[in-house]
Amino acid sequence: MLIDYIVLIAIVALSTLVARVFGGSARTAGNSAETVGMTIAIAVAVLDLGVLAGLTGKTIGKWATGLRIQRTNGADPGLGRALLRHFVGYPLSFLTIGIGFLLAALSPRGRALHDLIADTVVVREVSLPPPRR
Predict the structure, then answer these.
(1) Number of folded domains that form the chain
(2) Share above pLDDT 70 across residues of the chain, in percent, rounded to a whole number
(3) Where in the sequence is the domain holding 45, given as residue range(s)?
(4) Residue 27: inside a domain
(5) Cα distance between residue 51 and residue 54, in whole Å
(6) pTM listed for this prediction
(7) Which phi and psi angles does 107 have, rounded to 5°?
(8) DSSP 8-state code for residue 57
(9) Which of 2-16, 29-43, 56-70, 109-123 is least confident?
């Protein structure tokens, strides 16, 4: 999750930097750069946390750490569950003052509130060793 948010914050930070560089005399150029940056960040969030996670079970952060999201029956989560998990489940986990995330430490399968809502679980990718010859 942290890697995914770093990517999104980097997009917003870069657009803010561009806005500040052009913001001196051409204020509208600065505002439009911030708007474009926010639009790109929202699009990347939907693509990464919704579409990519739904189709492959991996976000950029999950891919980088060797993890994947899957349904409790082992299938890929699908677009609807990925969107539900990230855009409803995560905010609810934050709104409960982090108790939603604490459930992962108490759950036998390590499932947090967002996983319980979307019927998903995060698992480590198993890489098979190359066959011996």
Answers:
(1) 1
(2) 89
(3) 2-124
(4) yes
(5) 5
(6) 0.77
(7) -85, 140
(8) S
(9) 29-43
Is residue 106 within 8 A of residue 92, CB to CB? The reply is: no
Cα angle 129-131-133, degrees, rounded to a multiple of 5: 140
For residue range 79-96, list pLDDT tens digits in order. 999 999 999 999 999 999
Top mean pLDDT of 23-27, 31-35, 54-58 is at 54-58
R_g (Cα) of the chain, nearest Å: 18
| Site of tokens 């948010």 | 5
HEC-encoded secondary structure of 64-113: HHCEEEEECCCCCCHHHHHHHHHHHHHHHHHHCCCHHHHHHHHCCCCCCH
**Contact yes or no for 69/62 (Cβ under 8 A):** yes
Asked if residue 133 belongs to a domain, the reply is: no
**Helix (H), strand (E) at residue 121:** strand 120-124
Q: Are 109 and 66 in contact (CB under 8 A)?
A: no
- What is the predicted pLDDT for the residue at 123? 93
Within a domain: residue 18?
yes
